[in-house]
Specification:
The complex is a heterodimer of chains A (292) and B (329). Chain A is built from 10 helices and 6 strands. Chain A has 292 residues and is α/β, with parallel strands linked by helices. In chain A, a hairpin with a 6-residue loop joins β2 and β3. Chain A is elongated, with a radius of gyration of 25 Å. The N and C termini of chain A lie far apart (71 Å). Chain B has 329 residues and is an all-alpha fold. Chain B has one domain. Chain B contains 16 helices and no strands. In chain B, α4 packs parallel to α6 and α5 runs antiparallel to α6. The longest helix of chain B has 34 residues. Chain B is globular. The chains are: A alpha/beta (292), B mainly alpha (329). At the A-B interface, α1, α2, α3, α4 and α5 of A face α1, α2, α7, α9 and α10 of B. Chain A: It holds the Pfam family DUF1980. Chain A: It comes from Paenibacillus typhae. Chain A: This is TIGR03943 family protein.
Chain lengths: 292, 329
């Protein structure tokens, strides 16, 4: 058992670390940088964390400074006894704080996408149609409805709010969408291949946090040559086209224009529970119509 | 530990402080040292997992301290049925009441065990809690909108595995496998005399739990982020080509990725074409029960031998269960 004096030191160190975490999270949410790490639905809960963290720090501080020595006891939770163990423990807790404060916040890009493998097709595949539940499948109904709405557009704008759903709807009915005009933005993903580089305009789909981020991409026609470096944010306008790529039928864009754009404030995309309603809302809002 | 702790800490504190100052003052002016895509992917994954787990760890620690300070021991033993089968059912259903992610589970369960919850019920709760709850069910159903039966199968298999492992533990383990012997009488008296009353003592406890679990969590996050940064998914998929290999591969992936149980279904859904659905089931059932960060936490709670026995039971139960389920699917 540690003596009261060293318990006070431990408590003070812990109070400082807890305050550090509280400050870091508050700093992230103030800088609006939480979305680099977690999805918005989770960010709500993380924004609350500084409250318990600082309360914990304050009560540890009170114990350390004013607590009666007889009340200080680590009999239940052993505090580390040797110097080495204490340094290792608190060093471990310093690590995320240091990484967090020292390195700039940056969105995942090509390096991570290459590791994870970019999905060029969406989840709902051909075999889904022969499935026994296909007839009463609310998912495909949603896609079908969205696809119907998209098809009527002169230029299909792929909104980031419903990126994966739009992509899914187009992928599901790729034959019908052949030749349609499309406009989409994302980061430039470049993959070195035997027959020259292939390019895709990509986004990371984040469900919960960056650990589950899955890169989705739409392949650009292999004839296009782009001199922009990988990870540049681009807007691509062009025609949809289906083609064979590495043994799979995938949707491609034959680009007419590729314009570099600044990185959007939310670089990732998130899934949307009701994409049709979201689409209605986005397309009825005035800001979008002028984007042609 | 002798009396002069602050003096002893000095020789280590000085270089530590120097490093921190160096890190904060000097490094930002030399960003070219850090201009490395790997470091950025690593940081983004590491902080992402840590932030994701943070609310759950705090919630688990807080619930556990509230239990510790406010709930008398007799209550817990009164609630839990005496006979094993109803008790196991009770353990499975607890998850619906406490929808805590697996990272918050261990502190809560340790407290419940100290309050007199039998070992096998605790194990059933650890295993089923992160899967058998409304949040995870909803997330799985959303991820597999095209294949809703996979969501039902996930719930069913999680229940079966938890119950089977619980029964085996009930039948085979008699000695307490806890690492720290339970000291029930020592705590209560002086915690009440903590400055600021019960509320402060709850908070002090919460931070004790936070540091206790936090170290395993951070180690787990470092390993997971490292694997995510440096492991090539494509090169590993070749292993999955063999019929049973895909099961082993998906279970290994679940273990190393350490995803949260509410999000792993979405990751599993991206493998829908490359892998048989039985192996996706194995991925989604094994992941929340056993992964990097939570196996470290379990090793801190249980004696090493018991922990490995438990890992083995979980692994084989999930493997057999998912292979059997694939025949039925």
């Amino acid at each position: 058992m540690n003596d009261p004096r060293s318990i006070r030191v431990h408590y003070l160190l812990r109070a400082v670390l807890l305050l550090g975490f509280a400050l870091y999270i508050a700093h992230l949410s103030q800088q609006d940088a939480l979305h680099y790490y977690v999805a918005p639905k989770l960010a709500r809960w993380i924004r609350l964390c500084p409250v318990p963290l600082s309360l914990m720090a304050v009560s540890l501080g009170i114990q350390a400074l004013f607590g009666k020595s007889s009340a200080l006891c680590d009999c239940e939770h052993q505090l580390p006894r040797s110097m080495f163990k204490s340094t290792a423990l608190y060093g471990l807790f310093l690590l995320p704080l240091l990484l967090g404060f020292v390195l700039p916040d940056r969105a995942l890009g090509t390096a991570a996408a290459a590791r994870k493998g970019v999905s060029l097709t969406y989840v709902s595949p051909e075999e889904g149609r022969e499935e026994r539940f296909a007839a009463a499948n609310p998912y495909q109904e949603e896609f079908a409805e969205l696809a119907g709405k998209l098809y009527k557009q002169p230029v299909i704008q792929v909104h980031p709010e419903i990126f994966s759903e739009t992509f899914g709807a187009i992928d599901l009915y790729k034959e019908q969408f052949e030749g349609k005009e499309v406009a989409v933005s994302g980061f430039l993903y470049r993959e070195q291949g035997a027959g020259g580089d292939s390019f895709a305009v990509s986004r990371f789909l984040v469900q919960c946090c960056t650990a589950d981020a899955t890169p989705f991409g739409i392949l650009l026609d292999p004839q296009t040559q782009i001199s922009l470096p990988a990870d540049t944010w681009i807007e691509v306008r062009g025609k949809l086209h289906t083609a064979e790529y590495q043994g799979k039928t995938v949707v491609q864009i034959i680009p007419e224009t590729v314009t570099p754009i600044p990185q959007p404030s939310t670089p990732y995309v998130y899934s949307n529970a009701d994409s049709v309603a979201a689409w209605e809302q986005i397309s009825s809002s005035p800001g979008v119509t002028e984007a042609k | 530990m002798t009396s002069f702790f602050p003096l002893k800490i000095l020789p280590l504190l000085v270089p530590a402080v120097f490093l921190i100052v160096l890190g904060i003052v000097w490094l930002p002016e030399h960003p070219e040292l850090l201009e490395n895509a790997y470091i950025h992917s690593f940081k983004t994954a590491f902080i992402g997992i840590l932030l994701e787990a943070m609310p759950f760890v705090l919630l688990g620690a807080l619930l556990s301290s509230l239990l510790r300070v406010f709930v008398p021991d007799e209550w817990i033993s009164r609630w839990i049925p005496r006979r094993p089968v109803p008790a196991i059912l009770f353990g499975c259903l607890l998850g619906i009441l406490f929808p805590v992610c697996e990272c918050g589970m261990i502190p809560l369960v340790r407290r419940l065990m100290q309050k007199g919850m039998p070992l096998y019920v605790a194990i059933v709760f650890i295993l089923s809690g992160p899967i058998l709850n409304p949040v995870v069910y909803g997330a799985t159903l959303t991820a597999f909108r095209t294949h809703p039966w996979l969501a039902y199968a996930r719930m069913g298999l999680a229940f079966a595995v938890a119950a089977a492992v619980g029964l085996i533990i009930y039948a085979t383990v008699t000695k307490s496998p806890l690492r720290l012997s339970i000291r029930r009488e020592s705590g209560e008296a002086h915690q009440l005399s903590a400055r600021g009353g019960r509320l402060v003592s709850v908070l002090v406890h919460t931070s004790d739990e936070f540091f206790e679990m936090g170290k395993y969590l951070i180690i787990g996050c470092v390993l997971t982020a490292g694997i995510q940064t440096f492991m090539d998914h494509g090169s590993l998929e070749a292993i999955g080509g063999m019929p049973l290999g895909s099961y082993l591969f998906m279970m290994g992936l679940a273990f190393v990725l350490s995803l949260c149980s509410t999000s792993d279904a979405f990751v599993a859904a991206t493998f829908l074409h490359t892998f048989p659905s039985g192996s996706l089931l194995a991925f989604m059932v094994l992941g929340p029960m056993l992964d990097f960060k939570n196996s470290l936490m379990m090793l801190s709670l249980f004696k090493t031998r018991f922990a490995f026995y438990l890992f083995f039971l979980i692994f084989s139960a999930v493997f057999i269960g998912s292979v059997l389920a694939s025949f039925w699917l």
